[in-house]
Design brief:
Blueprint: E1 2-11, H1 16-32, E2 36-52, E3 55-67, H2 69-81, E4 85-92
Antiparallel strand pairs: 1-3, 1-4, 2-3
Length: about 100
């Protein structure tokens, strides 16, 4: 199992329930693929530096999780397919 950190931005033009549902869907992918969510933070709505898909603000989330390389690839694939996620980035954390 490797440690990863993912930051993703969800569209702010949606209802707050839809934003939370999108964030929960990402967490569910980790647990469904036998990974473990270590930490999950909602950073709130922030203005974007530039417009993405005609959106000028978004809800930021940061998640730290333990998962296999295959699970990380599946999360990346599903985040790319989700139209409600404007951007995402997954980084592998160093082993301590």
């Amino acid at each position: 199992m490797n440690n990863y950190e993912m930051m993703f931005i969800v569209k702010a033009t949606m209802e707050s329930e839809e934003v939370k549902k999108t964030a929960e869907a990402i967490k569910k992918i980790v647990t469904d693929e036998k990974g473990k969510v270590v930490e999950f933070k909602e950073l709130g709505e922030k203005k974007l530096a530039y417009s993405i898909k005609h959106e000028i603000s978004g809800y930021y989330f940061v998640m730290t999780f333990e998962a296999s390389k295959e699970t990380q690839a599946e999360i990346n694939r599903k985040a790319n397919l989700d139209e409600n996620i404007l951007r995402h980035l997954i980084i592998k954390l160093d082993e301590e």
